[in-house]
């Protein structure tokens, strides 16, 4: 054990003598890392106060939290808020909206950057490739407020989309006031925003592919599609799997800020999701305990999804987060 | 062996180039359109409708109104301040944590790492965090925007991966000369880590520049509002009273080129930084983080 420690030791002057007790070794290690622990001090304080203290605060989900009191001083009510939520009028609508929105996002939004990376990988002109990349990255840097502002303006009754419909002789539609268009608008604009930026990670994986592989397969007479299928796709497969797990593990909490900016009471029927409901109940109505319980439900389901996705992927593809 | 493209190959190329060009146009045109309308006069926009390719009746009046608007100016100043202060805090925290956790010999390294990684998958959530901020008396202060997101675990892991890739031999001679960890960090590690530092600064700065949600729940004092909150009023809630418009049809068009001018003014600064850092994006920086 002591030998193992000294092997990792880049400082040659400190050689542990055989007879030292464990306590002394710990002391020496602490002393050796004293400046590093000093560096970690603000970091750990931050995590304690702004990450772990709120986790302790989750206990208010099981109380009738009174704002003047501390986390442990309010009246305990057990699972009351959870039961209220499950039996509430909006429960099934919220579940359905959250799942459906994310389902369509997964079906169309997830493969889009993969497709872009595959297509760009087939482009021989370096200039064209760089131009496409540069242009498609831009929306990632535009703020959500501006993006949603643009969406609202483009789909308004005298906006860009309806002008085009007008040219085609079609009636103008108030898209944002109609629940049936919400998911389409959300998913389409999401792809527009993120397709370029999300493809970077696949480019990074593709840049690691040995060009000899392509050459060798050409010698063997492999055509384009076979090269994509047998070389390119397998090269990015682990990346795809890991991103898919992460996406699924984040399924119920994604897009909160965008929905909050984009939805309106007229479209709640399809646009209101669990996280926006937590926001309205907690921040706007100050029902802290109830909203916290709904939020906790969301977090737990998310976490379960992550674990399930990871387990499935470990079984069938050998790629996993842990 | 000479490469001879078959007919199918060439067809694939043509379709590929067409698809990618269409994608580029559909990304670029909406942005270009915003730019064009912001430079057009109100009357011409009303006459020609929305589909435009060049400014109609070129005028800078929308930009003059934007610059004359006190709230936008103040928001702009606040945002610049938040970006500088917030990014500085982020960088200090991220660099310290990444350096510490890349020291393989550090006792307890695993425990610290686990403490940080847990928060990537589990958090207190919106309401408990809100209550903590209130209890700490940070509500309606700029610290409610600066402190809760003082460090991103994801970015820290990226930077740690980069630090771990730096050969240990670089710091060995400094160690023998008795340099301590702060000296090694600042004199040896940071100077060779400029690419990752540039990318991190960009990520954090863009995040602060575009952030609006924390400000919307934690700030009440309009004097502290960042630009994005003012933009939300103008673009999303359509409140243009501050800008001297009324609700007649002409006023609506005023709002349109004004709206677009505010978009340009608020978006161009961040887009100007981006080409300088773009070359670092693909260089395996993001890939490294995935292996963790």
From TrEMBL, chain A:
The keyword Lipid biosynthesis does not apply. The chain crosses the membrane at residues 35-62, 99-120, 132-151, 191-210, 231-252, 288-309. It comes from the Bacteria. One of its GO terms (biological process) is transmembrane transport. Residues 95-309 form the ABC transmembrane type-1 domain. The keyword 4Fe-4S does not apply. Its main location: membrane. It is a multi-pass membrane protein. Keywords: Membrane, Transmembrane, Transmembrane helix, Transport. GO terms for cellular component: plasma membrane. It is found in: Cell membrane; Membrane. Belongs to the binding-protein-dependent transport system permease family. This is Putative aldouronate transport system permease protein.
Automatic annotation (TrEMBL), chain B:
The chain crosses the membrane at residues 14-39, 79-99, 111-136, 142-163, 184-206, 258-277. One of its GO terms (biological process) is transmembrane transport. Residues 76-277 form the ABC transmembrane type-1 domain. SUPFAM superfamilies: MetI-like (SSF161098). It comes from Paenibacillus taihuensis. Keywords: Cell membrane, Membrane, Transmembrane, Transmembrane helix, Transport. GO terms for cellular component: plasma membrane. This is Putative aldouronate transport system permease protein. Belongs to the binding-protein-dependent transport system permease family.
């Amino acid at each position: 054990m002591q030998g193992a420690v000294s092997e990792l030791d880049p400082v040659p002057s400190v050689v542990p003598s055989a007879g030292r007790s464990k306590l002394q070794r710990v002391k020496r290690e602490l002393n050796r890392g004293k400046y590093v622990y000093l560096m970690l001090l603000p970091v750990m304080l931050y995590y304690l106060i702004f990450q772990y203290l709120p986790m302790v605060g989750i206990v208010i989900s099981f109380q009738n939290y009174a704002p003047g009191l501390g986390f442990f001083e309010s009246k305990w009510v057990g699972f009351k808020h959870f039961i209220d939520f499950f039996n509430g009028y909006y429960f099934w609508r919220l579940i359905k909206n959250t799942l459906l929105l994310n389902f369509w996002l997964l079906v169309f939004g997830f493969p889009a950057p993969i497709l872009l990376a595959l297509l760009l990988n087939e482009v021989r002109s370096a200039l064209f490739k760089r131009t496409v990349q540069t242009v498609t990255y831009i929306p990632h840097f535009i703020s959500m407020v501006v993006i949603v502002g643009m969406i609202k303006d483009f789909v308004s009754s005298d906006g860009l989309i309806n002008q085009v419909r007008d040219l085609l002789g079609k009636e103008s539609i108030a898209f944002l006031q109609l629940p049936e268009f919400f998911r389409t608008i959300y998913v389409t604009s999401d792809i527009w925003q993120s397709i370029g930026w999300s493809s970077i990670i696949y480019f990074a994986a593709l840049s690691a592919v040995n060009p000899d592989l392509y050459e060798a397969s050409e010698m063997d007479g492999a055509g384009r599609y076979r090269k994509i299928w047998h070389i390119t796709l397998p090269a990015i497969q682990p990346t795809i799997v890991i991103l898919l797990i992460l996406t699924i593990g984040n399924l119920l909490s994604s897009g909160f800020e965008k929905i909050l900016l984009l939805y309106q009471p007229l479209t709640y029927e399809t646009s209101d999701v669990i996280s926006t409901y937590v926001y309205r109940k907690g921040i706007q109505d100050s029902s802290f305990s109830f909203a916290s319980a709904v939020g906790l439900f969301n977090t737990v389901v998310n976490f379960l999804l992550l674990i399930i996705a990871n387990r499935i992927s470990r079984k069938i593809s050998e790629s996993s987060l842990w | 062996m000479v490469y001879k493209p078959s007919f199918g190959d060439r067809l694939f190329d043509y379709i590929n180039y067409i698809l990618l060009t269409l994608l580029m146009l559909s990304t670029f045109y909406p942005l270009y359109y915003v730019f064009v309308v912001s430079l057009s006069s109100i009357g011409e926009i009303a006459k020609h409708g929305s589909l435009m390719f060049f400014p109609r009746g070129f005028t800078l009046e929308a930009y003059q109104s934007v610059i004359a608007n006190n709230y936008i100016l103040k928001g702009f100043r606040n945002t610049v301040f938040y970006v500088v202060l917030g990014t500085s805090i982020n960088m200090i925290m991220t660099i310290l944590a990444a350096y510490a956790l890349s020291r393989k010999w550090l006792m307890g390294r695993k425990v610290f790492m686990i403490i940080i990684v847990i928060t990537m998958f589990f958090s207190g959530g919106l309401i408990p965090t809100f209550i903590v901020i209130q209890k700490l008396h940070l509500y309606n202060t700029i610290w409610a925007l600066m402190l809760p997101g003082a460090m991103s675990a994801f970015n820290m892991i990226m930077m740690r991966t980069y630090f771990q890739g730096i050969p240990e031999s670089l710091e060995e001679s400094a160690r023998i000369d008795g340099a301590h960890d702060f000296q090694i960090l600042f004199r040896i590690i940071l100077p060779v880590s400029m690419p990752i530092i540039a990318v991190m600064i960009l990520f954090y700065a863009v995040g602060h520049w575009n952030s609006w949600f924390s400000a919307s729940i934690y700030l009440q004092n309009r004097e502290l509002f960042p630009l994005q909150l003012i933009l939300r009023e103008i673009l999303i809630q359509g409140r243009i009273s501050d800008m001297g418009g009324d609700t007649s049809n002409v006023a609506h068009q005023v709002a349109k080129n004004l709206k677009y001018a505010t978009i340009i003014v608020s978006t161009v600064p961040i887009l100007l930084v981006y080409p300088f850092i773009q070359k670092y994006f693909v260089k395996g920086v993001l890939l490294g983080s995935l292996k963790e």
